[in-house]
Design the sequence.
């Protein structure tokens, strides 16, 4: 029996990177998954790779409450429950505060913070009516702990996700719904590997373990939070950073 046997999980931003790694891990542990992403072709390909008997894809813009509602409803209609939500969708629009546009600030806040709120609000409403409750995992970032130059939008959004997680956890715990967050550090994805070598090298010097993390290592922590292994944990934040900036 897998740790998520018979459970239904929804993961946003699941077409690639950390989101797809989480979906893959969940399926390996017995879950049925719904993959949400803006890029329908890419997320359909990801779902096909996992197998139609355990995965399907839905186009979803997490900034739109009605689209999150449709994503979650699709999971319940197909498999009868919503047991896990991972709010993972995210983007970057890095620039110094002096040069950052208002549009890029608003967009990053909307995708990360509002998108996370949309998912947490609607998923918890479904989960609190189930006898089994449910678990919500929100993806923050080390940038939300320390703040990063060129990321006043991203750092603000990721810090906000921590506050949202703790407040939501207090509101829904009595109904058997747990809400936790993960703060990844430097994780090897297409997005991070596209950064200038100088920036990559600087970040590497800050990591006591001397290496970047892999998406699967974030997926392992998401599995921990999604499963009964963390049954007495809510409102917590797991730093998965290799010891960076502790």
Sequence:
């Amino acid at each position: 029996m897998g740790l998520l046997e018979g459970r239904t999980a929804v993961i946003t931003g699941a077409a690639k990177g950390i989101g797809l790694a989480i979906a893959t891990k969940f399926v390996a542990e017995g879950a049925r998954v719904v993959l949400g992403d803006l890029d329908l072709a890419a997320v359909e390909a990801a779902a096909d790779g996992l197998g139609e008997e355990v995965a399907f894809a839905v186009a979803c813009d997490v900034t739109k409450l009605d689209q999150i509602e449709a994503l979650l409803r699709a999971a319940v209609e197909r498999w009868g429950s919503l047991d896990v939500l991972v709010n993972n969708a995210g983007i970057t629009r890095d620039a110094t505060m002096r040069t950052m546009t208002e549009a890029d600030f608003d967009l990053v806040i909307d995708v990360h913070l509002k998108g996370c709120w949309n998912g947490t609000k609607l998923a918890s409403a479904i989960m609190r009516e189930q006898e089994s409750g449910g678990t919500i995992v929100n993806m923050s970032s080390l940038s939300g702990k320390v703040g990063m130059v060129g990321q006043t939008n991203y750092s603000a959004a990721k810090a906000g996700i921590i506050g949202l997680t703790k407040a939501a956890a207090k509101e829904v715990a009595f109904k058997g719904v747990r809400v936790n967050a993960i703060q990844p550090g430097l994780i090897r994805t297409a997005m991070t590997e596209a950064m200038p070598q100088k920036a990559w090298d600087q970040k590497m010097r800050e990591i006591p373990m001397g290496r970047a993390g892999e998406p699967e290592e974030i997926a392992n922590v998401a599995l921990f939070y999604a499963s009964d292994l963390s049954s007495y944990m809510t409102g917590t934040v797991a730093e998965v950073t290799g010891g960076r900036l502790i």
